[in-house]
Amino acid sequence: MIRVLLVDDQPLIRSGFRAILDLEDDIEVVAEAADGLQGLALVKEHLPDVALVDVRMPVVDGIEATRRIAADPALAGVHVVILTNYGLDEYVFDALRAGAAGFLVKDIVPEDFLHAVRVAARGDALLAPSITRRLIDRHLTRPLGTGTGAGLEGLTAREREAVALVAQGLSNDQIAGHMAISPLTAKTHVNRAMAKLRARDRAQLVIFAYESGLVAPRDR
Question: Which residues span the membrane (predicted)?
């Protein structure tokens, strides 16, 4: 059972998402919160698999709430998905830096919303290739080629390749096909890279790949 916490200051939004989630046999909404501070308390109380967190809220906003969740070792199993009205607004990249697994626009269709919750619960990043490129093009202001490369020297060549493919939005199965290896080996490369880089999830691998210069913003 996937346990979900809803954190949004708009009751209508929470009710709409809950109505969709309550119809699914494998998903349970464990609690709702109207602001980030209340959300943090409920995250600690219920330890959900997925916390759906609005980016703009009173008291504590979604970015700060995400940062506090990511910094708490006791909450390592909680995957934060940021909710936004505006798609690629100025806060999304900051949320990914803070430790969010990805983001959803609130006008998402129910089928895609449910798929996203299940993807997040598995620990995968909610970053399609086109979204990744738009995020980086818009928010990564460092000129290409001036990345520090910090941490790259600790990765093997295969781990670097796997991280670059994660940054292009590929799943482990797709990485396996691209690298001509088994899905289990692909997962191993990704997990070892995450451990070496101390990345909380795949979204942080994406950020590392671009900021280190491993992948260029307009790679295709």
Answer: none
Q: Pairing between strand 50-54 and 27-33?
A: unpaired
Question: What residue ranges of the chain have pLDDT lower than 50?
Answer: 129-130, 139-149, 218-220
Pairing outcome for strands 50-54 and 79-84: parallel
- The token duo for 34 is 């109207």
3 state DSSP class of 34: coil
Q: What is the DSSP letter of 80?
A: E
Report d(CA 85, CA 88) in Å as an integer: 9
Q: Is residue 55 packed enough to be buried (19+ CB in 10 Å), middle (13-18) or exposed (0-12)? A: buried
Residue-level pLDDT at 2:
97
Element (H, E) at 21: helix 11-22
Collect all residues with Cβ–Cβ distance below 8 Å to 53 and sequence separation of at least 6.
7, 8, 36, 39, 62, 65, 66, 80, 81, 82, 83, 100
pTM for the predicted model, two decimal places: 0.68
Q: What is the pLDDT of residue 90?
A: 61
Residue of 63, 71, 29 lying closest to 48 (CA atoms) = 29
